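Holo model, alpha-D-glucopyranose. Inputs:
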Amino acid sequence: MRTVASATPSPTTTSLSEQAQAVLRANWREGVHRDGTPYAYTCPATPRYRHQWHWDSCFHAIAWCRHDVHRAREELRTVLRGGRADGFAPHTVFWHNHPRWRRAPLYATQRVRGSRHTTTIGPPLLPFAWERVAAASADEPAFATESLHALEAHLDWLERERDVDDDGLITILLPDESGLDDSPKYDPVYGAYAHYRPGYFRLVARYGRLGWSAHEIAAVHDEHVEDVWVNVAYALSLRAMARLAGDDAYARRADRVEAALLERCLDPATGLFYDLAGRAERPVHVSTWSALSPLMLDTLPQDVRRRLVEEHLLDPRRYRAAFGIPSVAMDEPSFRPGFDLWRTWRGPSWMNVAWLLTPALRELGYHDDADRIASGMSQAVARDGLREYYDPRTGAGMAARGFSWSALVADLASA
Ligand code: GLC
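Output:
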């Protein structure tokens, strides 16, 4: 196994920043959709990911802030324009071309071809990203409040349409709504309908017949999840919204989500947070980075957060890897960190995960560990460029090249 560390000199923040900017610029797309709507966004990578993805764009906008904040704002405005006035924001928007016929059935759209966007959602990070971009917008301070109504409508849509049992937690219908498409935590829930299995198309068709109504689907089917990571993203966005709008009602909603995560998802035996699946809300006992993601919620009790760090994130048998934070605990039987054309999120280290979790490590005082993670990801980028994901044991870059959200490395390295 080839490792990166000894052979590669420490990359400078300037060279990482230059690489990040080059990839973001190469992947920038702008134009006007045939229905007259203007768009400007960064595609994740060509040729595989040519469209606009919700959470990708949130990360791209944050990454753009240090290079061209105008583009950061345009990317987030385009996310809003891709959705509907009722607050629905799609997982994927097809601005300038349709999915190719072979990939088209993978997207949950109203029709196989011709829909401008999917009927599914992505991890709800938009208000979270909006606040970051607003903080970098000294040249245009009005950005912070120009779309409050639309952002509120989006969060209200999520509560109305996706908190089906009114317990504070929102539900996802398909595994890719979390962005973690083929994560092994979905295997016991989706079985033959998992994202990487042929049954997935049948599930998409079945949910399409129910009009993509989570209320109707959750009443009669079991293939849906109250997903920990998605609810962490939701809570982060509710907190950002409270600050952007100066409205405490959103902070109280965030309190409710966080209380539900603590009461219903936290497993006292392991200290991990598990998803709740189906009508019976069965906890899914698979350790993935999502089970650690409540670490980002700084209002959770310190002992709960420290336990996630000390018993999991820093355990060399679980998540303490040479490069980044593995997407699945290394002691899970399903841990497969190598390249897989059909299945993602089954072990490799992703840049956005390292970027999301390391600030919490710093805040709790684990500076050396945060530095180690940042340096491992920087070394991997210095050798193999901005890739879709990296082998946590060797740092080898895998899957798509020129992958846009890996531009977060510049932020990670300079924190
Ligand atoms: C892959 C990832 C997903 C991402 C998409 C576009 O499907 O699993 O998280 O949003 O690519 O980059």
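The pocket of alpha-D-glucopyranose is lined by residues 44, 49, 53, 55-56, 179, 181, 344-345 (CB under 6 Å). Strands lie at 28-32, 38-42, 52-53, 92-93, 225-226, 276-277, 282-283, 387-390, 397-401.
Archived with the compound record.
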